[in-house]
């Protein structure tokens, strides 16, 4: 076997080998999703929360061309504060490696690297999906087809309403990606607890999610299980503010001709600015909830405690 190109931290490697719980975390959320300096604080807090639940955090990104599973605090800080760090989806990983670039990894790239390292559970904020107007632009996140080929559990708060939610749900069905709500059948819309679209199934505990995963694995099905975990209704973004800013964000992206992989960061940045940071607080709450649930699922699936 050729040597693995992955740098896996000792702590993460040891936990994986022992069957102790590990939770993967992505880096695009702090390289391109959240503004400085909040981004570093959020990345650190997420790791601390995972550790407090006796689970090993594995934040994943690319450092100087090296895909890394279990970034050190210094590496997280570097990625979070350096200008021009790339946003790497799966197709960009070989390019970042060959060119020696540093990158935040999207859900697709992070999921791929997590699976390569032997990690089974991954928490993110919002999942990529089908963009509005995709009927013309074909802009669908590589997150979806990539997750369709990886036997992980991915915890998110659904997809943001910057995307086309019903088209995204259709694509999940086509790709055989199961999606379950955590204690609800309302599909969340990230900033809001209910997008207005419904799911067929809810699950009530990390243990129940573990049983779904065991059943999936026993059949040899190798697509991710998507767990949609809504933000508490009392902490969601006020609906009117949400709808107003959303409309303006989409208009502005259209007016400026923003397209391709710049679309998601552009829209997220617009929403953050125009809600005066309120969406940012929701974003952080949402992420915290997903990290906590992911850690509990990782613990339920592990064979050895930490
Ligand atoms: N959705 C969010 N916040 C994010 C992203 C999505 O609410 O930061 C990031 C994730 O890393 C996701 C990526 O994988 O954007 C999707 O980008 P694209 O639509 O270009 O595939
Ligand atoms: Mn895209």
From TrEMBL:
Residue positions binding Mn(2+): 139
Tagged with keyword Metal-binding: yes
Top-rank taxon, per record: Bacteria
Keywords assigned by UniProt, alphabetized: Glycosidase, Hydrolase, Lyase, Manganese, Metal-binding
Database matches in InterPro entries: Indigdn_synthA-like (IPR022830), PsuG (IPR007342)
Assigned EC number: 4.2.1.70
A cellular component term, taken from the record's GO annotations: cytoplasm
Single Gene Ontology MF annotation: hydrolase activity, acting on glycosyl bonds
Catalytic activity, reaction form: D-ribose 5-phosphate + uracil = psi-UMP + H2O
Active-site residues, Swiss-Prot/TrEMBL: 26 (proton donor), 160 (nucleophile)
Class of the enzyme per the UniProt entry, highest EC level: lyase
Co-factor binding details: Binds 1 Mn(2+) ion per subunit.
Record-listed substrate binding positions: 87, 107, 141-143
Swiss-Prot/TrEMBL cofactor(s): Mn(2+)
Family membership noted in the UniProt record: Belongs to the pseudouridine-5'-phosphate glycosidase family.
UniProt subunit comment: Homotrimer.
Protein name per its UniProtKB record: Pseudouridine-5'-phosphate glycosidase
Source organism: Microbacterium immunditiarum
